[in-house]
């Protein structure tokens, strides 16, 4: 019976050993991933996949407790990337230098026994809020050498076991006052080599905090750092020598050598509005926010005069307040005041510039507010024009028309006066040089020649030039006086006034002379001007018939002699007496 019991015990031992060996060989089998090696390290099942070309975490045994992926180009971590491949037993995760640029807020979700995570030397500019939600057992978080610039409010979820937070070598400029308030067990925080200029005491009011590293930041030793500086030096949280960089008066001084009294902030003022529009007889109020340490003195000026010396009825009050703008975190709590002015009865004398002035040992600041009253406007009633106004308009228009008519009449009279040639008188010598000729158009009858538009008078004098006149000109009278003597009247055919149009010629000869002869008015002849045009296709000078001193009548042809026959029909006129001379 005892033999049977011993054999059964041995069988169970062999079966258990075989199963255990097979299970152990499963998590150690990393041959399918060339860059990974699985081994025991410090009592932990460790998979080392460093310095490879992995783009995402590999699929390994769920028993792996430590995963080292540093120096792989992962670049990003998607949602629940580790839990999806069954790595729910991870306790330590090394993602250093994996070129991470973004991490999904739920990338580490369900890793409930995760203790350490290393995200150093990556390209994380933004750290998602609540990134470690569900990782309550975390004790160490390493974020060194990432381009982080700000830690937001509640940046970390409640992590009751977190002991160490490393943020050295980042670019942090601002840490919100509530960024670390959920880290009640935090003992060590490293903020070296950042861009911090000040810190708030309330940010690091953590019950378990023991060590702070702050060197390598451009500290500005003014009122915003004064409270934290005094607390840090008294708390003995660090042994480093911290140095002021700004302001210039404190540059290079160590914190412990800078008195708190000289860590001041010059006054800052922000007005509630630039323009206040008020109504006469109605109360109105306006004011400004004032910030500064030490507490600045506030005065109001009205048009450059101190309000206490003016006659404006007003009330001024001061209350602690805050300025709701983007720089609220930069102001020391309790250092901002609201200074209000109330005018109980606005009058016209209250309109003008109101200036809020803040002064302290650190400097001076001003803000100007303009009080504007509405302009008073007087309405003018419009009435319909009466009868006198209408009569004035009518007579005025008539007067203007009459004046225009008078001006037009005077202008017309002057024009017509200039168009009438003045009368002329000739000397005896000039009278002998006058040559008058009647020009007749071709193919016209004597009846047609009765029209004044078919005749032209050409006058030419050796000493006086006259322009030829056209049709319908005013009458021209020419009077010729001859030498003394009695002469018979001209023939009847030359006494007809019609062919001569608007030219009337009268010959007056008195005195004694040779009987039976007309006076020689031409003195041997005169040159008659020829016209440049031709008529009826013939090269005649269209000067018409002339009666010479010998009594002959002929058509004048350029270059033709008197005995050459002319083919052009000659106007038939009865021959004048030989002694008659045509003018």
From TrEMBL:
InterPro entries reported for this sequence: Cys-rich_flank_reg_C, Dev_Immune_Receptor, Ig-like_dom, Ig-like_dom_sf, Ig-like_fold, Leu-rich_rpt, Leu-rich_rpt_typical-subtyp, LRR_dom_sf
Identify the stretch annotated as signal peptide in this record.
1-25
Where's the Ig-like domain? Answer: 267-370
Region (Disordered) spans which residues?
Answer: 547-583
Transmembrane parts of this sequence: 390-415
Q: Which UniProt keywords apply?
A: Disulfide bond, Leucine-rich repeat, Membrane, Repeat, Signal, Transmembrane, Transmembrane helix
User: Compositional bias (Pro residues) spans?
Assistant: 572-583
Give the highest taxon in the source lineage: Eukaryota
The record's listing under Pfam families reads: Ig_3, LRR_8
Under the cellular component aspect of Gene Ontology, which terms does the record hold?
Answer: cell periphery
Q: Which PROSITE patterns does its entry note?
A: IG_LIKE
Asked if Transmembrane is a keyword of the record, the answer is: yes
Under which name does UniProt file this protein? Ig-like domain-containing protein
